[in-house]
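Sample entry (225 residues):
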Amino acid sequence: MVLGGEGTGAPVFITPSDYTLDLNKTDTINIRIEVRDNDSAQVDLRIVDNPPGGAFSTQPGSKIATYVWTPTAQQVAERPVWSFRVGASDRQNPEVFQDITILLKGGQKKCEGTPPVIQHQPLGDQRAAGDYLVEVTVSDAESQVQAVALYWMVRGTGDESFSKQSMNALGGGRWQGSIPNPQLPEGKTAEVLYYVCAVDDDDSSGSECDLRACIPEEGRFSFTA
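Predicted structure, serialized as C-alpha cells:
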C-alpha cells in the first residue's frame, strides 16, 4: 500500500512494494526505500512493523532508507511470505505508509526429487457478490502433493498483510480455495494480490526434504475487485 501523492504535499514512496528473495542465490535481502516530496527538504522515515532480525537504517530527515534481512531457518520453514511497514512524515502532513512484502524462494536442503508443478489461470478483474474462487492443478513426479495454500492481501483496507487459507483437494490434482469478498462500498475498487504454494511428500521419514513450489515465481497475481 502506498498512501500519499503528488499534489497533496505528502511524501510519495517511489520504490517497489514487492520483492522476492531467492535463497538459492543469496541468504540476505537488501532493499533501498525512497520517497519523493518536492516541497519538503527533509522527510522522516521509520519502520512500523518488522520481522524479527530485520535491520532498518536511515539518516534523520533523509528521503532514503535501507532494509537488510537475513531470514533464519525457522522463518523460512514457518512461511514463504513476510512483510514490513515503513512510515514517512514531512512534519506538515499526516504520516503516509508503504507495506513491503518479501517472498522467500528456495533455501531448502538439497534433496532428491523435484518440487510440485502448479498450473493456474489467473483471475481477471471482476466484481462479485460472493467470494472469489481460486482453482489450481498440482502434480508431482515422485510423490503425492500433501498440501496447497492460498495467500492473499487486499490493498487499501488497512490490514496490509497476507492471509493464508489451506486449499481443498477436489480430486484429479485439482485444488480450490477462495479469497473473501472485501465488501467494498458501491463505486469503490481495490487491488487484490494473491499467490499459491504447494508442498509435496518426497521425504517419507519426515518433512526436511519435502519440496515446496509457489506461483508466480516472481511478483504476485493481482486483479481489481
